[in-house]
Amino acid sequence: xxxxxxxxxxxxxxxxxxxxxxxxxxxxxxxxxxxxxxxxxxxxxxxxxxxxxxxxxxxxxxxxxxxxxxxxxxxxxxxxxxxxxxxxxxxxxxxxxxxxxxxxxxxxxxxxxxxxxxxxxxxxxxxxxxxxxxxxxxxxxxxxxxxxxxxxxxxxxxxxxxxxxxxxxxxxxxxxxxxxxxxxxxxxxxxxxxxxxxxxxxxxxxxxxxxxxxxxxxxxxxxxxxxxxxxxxxxxxxxxxxxxxxxxxxxxxxxxxxxxxxxxxxxxxxxxxxxxxxxxxxxxxxxxxxxxxxxxxxxxxxxxxxxxxxxxxxxxxxxxxxxxxxxxxxxxxxxxxxxxxxxxxxxxxxxxxxxxxxxxxxxxxxxxxxxxxxxxxxxxxxxxxxxxxxxxxxxxxxxxxxxxxxxxxxxxxxxxxxxxxxxxxxxxxxxxxxxxxxxxxxxxxxxxxxxxxxxxxxxxxxxxxxxxxxxxxxxxxxxxxxxxxxxxxxxxxxxxxxxxxxxxxxxxxxxxx
Length: 513
Description:
This protein has helices at residues 3-30, 34-44, 112-119, 161-167, 195-199, 206-216, 244-260, 282-288, 318-324, 326-333, 344-354, 399-406, 423-431, 469-477, 498-511, and strands at residues 47-49, 56-58, 123-129, 136-142, 150-159, 179-181, 228-230, 233-238, 267-272, 293-294, 303-310, 372-377, 395-396, 412-417, 435-439, 455-461, 480-486, 493-494. The protein is α/β, with parallel strands linked by helices. It folds into two domains: 123-320, no CATH class; 335-511, Rossmann fold. Strands 3, 4, 5, 6, 7, 8, 9, 10 and 11 form a nine-stranded mixed sheet that branches. Strand 4 (136-142) and strand 5 (150-159) form a beta hairpin. Helix 9 (318-324) packs across helix 10 (326-333). The radius of gyration is 25 Å and the shape is globular. The termini are far apart.
């Protein structure tokens, strides 16, 4: 090699080394530091004593203990699995009181579980940049791990409550001027860009629809047009009516926004429901989100917000994406919530039962020494306006006989139709269960409230074997799960083999999962 070539080679090598070191330092700095995460948690949370048989909330600082997890990836073609978990808590804003978090540890920092389930929306997507500034009046956040999830915030925005309620249906927003950006230098969009938002949400996603609706209107509304001005950050979620599984997912999404934003200062929660459907859960929402306002009840003609946050809808919820998307399903099954009380999923659980004045400290039974079995029964209902009666499936034909036989192996058996009880009555009943039994259906979302010693025993028709909705839920929440395969399709009426179910349950009680 000639001297000139040698110097050129050494120079190129030097540049490559410098580039690599620069890249390495950048990546190293971007790795989350566990201690910083703990200090952030201490600022917003207190601690929870989760000693056996006791749950007590203590405001103040807490030491986080790291635990290791050993989780096997289940074979999703089989409906047999088990998980366990412990009680949890949540953080404390001024307007909506939530629980302090427990001592313990969430997901391992930097893991898929931490990135997808905890940090989630890490990529900022500016949609509407104000002319000549770096201020974005509409900013969305997305995750690179899914193309169907986003949350957005809109600054300086006006809504017309009654128009918004009238325009909102169960699956779209009708054209209206129900939501508009205020006319100001900070909100005027030089060139709105919704391309990334389109690539990360589905066409019917209400977050996307609300953003697009606000961009349709010409900027002609002034601050003087605001009959009421809301300075507090406001989270506005869309209610999903009678389908309780999807409604609970929306509540979780709203709760997670509060956690992610670290909201201690006063803030507001509002719900806009579809006008074309009867809404069922208002009383419980007042307990879960004290001070909540319902858009259709707002008397003012116009309400303006300094900052409006739109949490993901039900179909964009983490729990739904975990069970729907093949790319993340197996990884989500590795995120077992057992002994991880400070995950958002488990904190929400404890907050949800606390809203009904419940905790886990008054029970010393479980599925191995059961005192109570609760059976949920399905009744025909319309899941959405276009639903037809003939679409209803999976009603238990011999449910009463099953209940009678269950009474021979435990002292107490209760059954219920969700439609006959308030939300808190449903939560209280399932929370008291040592074993919760039901045919696959939306009401099994109540398994979220089970205590860590209790069990969900899901009766799974053969045509639902590929639908791991409640297997996924119990895994992420760290609850115990057993799927019992029914060798029949989910027809309108299902007759189960009672003797075999009793034998299976007896074996579980005596020998464990």
